[in-house]
Write a structure and sequence with these properties.
alpha/beta, 7-stranded mixed beta sheet, 12 strands, 189 residues, 7 helices
Length: 189
């Protein structure tokens, strides 16, 4: 990760979470992104604070500094969604999630999905013809949305990174997508 120190300075990254996100996943992502120099906003359907899940119970509260209902994909250069089935199901049930994520996918902006998070895009019909990593519990849903599921720890499909944050390579691949994203080329196509 030392190669990425301040590499994303000036970039705005959204971490999308709802109550019940996996605390260790989000804090690992947040710490890695802070080292890159990126401006990080925790986007959530919850107002004020969002509650994590840690081990077998509720964890710490974290400030949600951007409300999902008023956040737009064009406010950010990239988005990452940590794991945690509780928050993934909560995000799926909120129609604002599909709206927010559709903007990233339609503009081919960098998106990183940890653990159960690909299910969010599958339920929003945003994974057609994509190749992703999905856990066994969500494999049928993800494949049913038109995606191909790989049996691997990490995969990059254009600007879409799927895998697990427990690998340093996850953040390295995500940062690489952010650095290689050229909005002008995408808009001209």
């Amino acid at each position: 990760m030392s190669d990425l120190e301040n590499a994303l300075s000036g970039k705005k990254i959204a971490i999308l979470v709802a109550n019940g996100f996996e605390e260790s996943h989000m804090t690992s992502l947040h710490k890695s992104l802070v080292l890159t120099g990126a401006e990080i906003k925790i986007v959530s359907p919850e107002k004020g604070v969002v509650n994590s899940w840690h081990g077998n119970g509720w964890g710490h509260f974290f400030p949600a500094n951007a409300h999902l209902a008023t956040s737009m994909s064009h406010h950010f250069d990239a988005v990452v969604i940590p794991g945690g089935s509780r928050h993934v199901n909560r995000l799926i049930s909120d129609p604002q999630t599909a709206r927010f994520m559709r903007g990233f996918m339609e503009d081919n902006k960098p998106v990183a999905l940890d653990d159960e998070a690909p299910k969010i895009l599958a339920e929003a019909n945003l994974l057609n013809n994509r190749t992703v990593i999905a856990n066994d519990d969500d494999k049928d849903v993800v494949e049913g949305s038109g995606a191909t599921v790989l049996d691997s720890d990490l995969h990059v499909d254009d600007m879409l990174v799927t895998g697990t944050v427990e690998s340093d390579a996850f953040m390295e691949k995500f940062a690489g997508c952010i650095l290689n994203y050229e909005p002008e080329a995408w808009e001209a196509a």
